[in-house]
Specification:
This protein has about 240 residues and is α/β, with parallel strands linked by helices. The chain has a single domain (about 15-240), classed as Vaccinia Virus protein VP39 (Rossmann fold), CATH 3.40.50.150. The protein is built from 7 helices and 8 strands. It has helices at about 25-40, 55-60, 75-85, 120-135, 165-170, 190-195, 205-215, and strands at about 45-50, 65-70, 90-95, 105-115, 135-145, 175-185, 220, 230-240. It has an 8-stranded mixed sheet with strand order 3-2-1-4-5-8-6-7. β2 (about 65-70), α3 (about 75-85) and β3 (about 90-95) form a beta-alpha-beta unit. α1 packs parallel to α2 (about 55-60). It is globular. About 35% of the residues are buried.
Amino acid sequence: MPGRLGVVSKLERLVPDETPLYMRHLCRLHEARYKFAADRVASKRVLDVACGVGYGAALLADAGASMVLGVDISPEAIGYARHRYARPSVHYTLGEASSLALADKSVDVLVSFETIEHLGKEKIEPFLQELRRVVKPGGAVFLSTPNGEASYKMGAYHTVEFSLGEFRSLLGRYFPQITFFGQRSIPRWYFALAGKARKLPLVWCLDALVRVMFFSSAQIRNLPAGGALPMFFVAQCVSE
């Protein structure tokens, strides 16, 4: 069995087996994105870019994908994945998200969840170019990222966070059809109130507790109306 990686590495990496009970809602959020894409993978060739320790790639294989390739920049994560989440139809390999060692139009479905906000700004456009290049015409691309308008401050490991308009404009340059969804919606009135109150001592801790208790649903839904603010965007794109 591989050694421990820790819940959060230098790349903010989730390791389900090492996630304490009070943070299990984070696992549900991540797993829900893979389950959302799983309906499209039966008998398909699937690529998971920035696969981490492999729990999502294994889930997609279990959903019926004919082949899943998990790519990640971390040797430790790939080593862990090969031991903990081995499947006959899953292959894990080292690679750069912005420079994929795959042939053009070689996969049917591509997923890359919570990746784009970690890339250097100079790598975002090459990353999207690569996704478009390796997916077959009519293939599906699933992406997710935090909602920049629903953050009190940018994540410590993020180089950029997008509003819905920014995310839509960026992806629209690469994919002709995009449907956006939201995950973990929070009422705007609560977000505004908590944002002001967080200046008080220990209120940030109470805010975190309230979010876990009342606003931790991992379900992916159509974008909410104006009264709610999704914490994450999930984009389902169709390749040309």
